[in-house]
């Protein structure tokens, strides 16, 4: 398309959106709005926030707003009037208020699908959440530990063993992709898994686009194309799994798709439609893939220059290994013994939460701290607002796993790496399993040091370390 035509269309669209936003800003409520400014039409403060995230100054960006306006302020993000709320009381208000619906940026809705658990509320949300929890309940998770153990060992043998240097982030994404592919979709290695890998590499590129327009050469266009391709692959997996279930070649515990297809209501009708399975499989894949890979990457970064934490972690895992036979896989009971390792994981989630924050939407006019939040406005919470608050977590910049020996010290809704309330992340236990199994073999088989002197990271929108975190490896004596 001719560039001048594109610019003309953009100008027209901006004019229309300006009128719509201007009209939307006319007060239709009584009461005092939070302090702050909605900024420029459509764009608002979106570019400023995204720049701060990519420059790793997003925490300061939030703090500057709090210093200027207080813990409650209005702004505009991604074309929608928004209220930023900070502090434990604000988090509790956001997570437990029935008048608030979950809301992702319109870009996320279009990429992921509108029948996913993040978007639904009421009876539909309860139905979908209940279905996904069937796959993630403890007796099911016990069955997956051995499969995850096998994937981790295979990954380390193929990608780490024999190497002098590796780049951590892409390898952790590869590991968690393989685990998720197996447990969600029942996919062994092959062309279908490779096709999904290519799609999910780009599916998140445009999720936080400032303006959700499907234009050529944009990250949002790449995400839409990748999503459409992945959804076709998943639809094909659903058809194949249905056939396997009918032939008795699969069971409810085989993988997520088989589990969701097997669920029925009181009348015997299927609990979820094919579209709902596809949408929620995409969300589950993104959540399970990104959270664990980011957590593992940043723990590896931390352990490179933290000998005390590394020593304690190695001791914990060597003690567990002594109780097992050669080549014996980890069990659910073994994971329960990895208490120090998971405290380190929680502390890393506090310092570098994989999700910067998410949105809620007011379904009616509501009040908080004397301010009115109009119906239809979105509310933003960010994990850093409490995670890096020195009055809640003393010396917040310091990595200190002992904080989590007694989690009742911090006020409720302060540590919110997985959210809280009725919409708390249902995959947090799955993330814990992936992380503990991977670290068990990493710290026992390798030592490492960072290749880059500069130890920084950016958010785009998820955190990513400089150059993907290249490290130099030293191989320990062979471990089972």
From TrEMBL:
CDD domains: CYP90-like (cd11043). Heme binds at residue 425. PROSITE patterns: CYTOCHROME_P450. The keyword Iron applies. GO terms for biological process: sterol metabolic process. One of its GO terms (molecular function) is monooxygenase activity. Keywords: Heme, Iron, Metal-binding, Monooxygenase, Oxidoreductase. Transmembrane segments: none annotated. It comes from the Eukaryota. Its cofactor is heme. It holds the Pfam family p450. Gene3D superfamilies: Cytochrome P450. Belongs to the cytochrome P450 family. This is Uncharacterized protein.
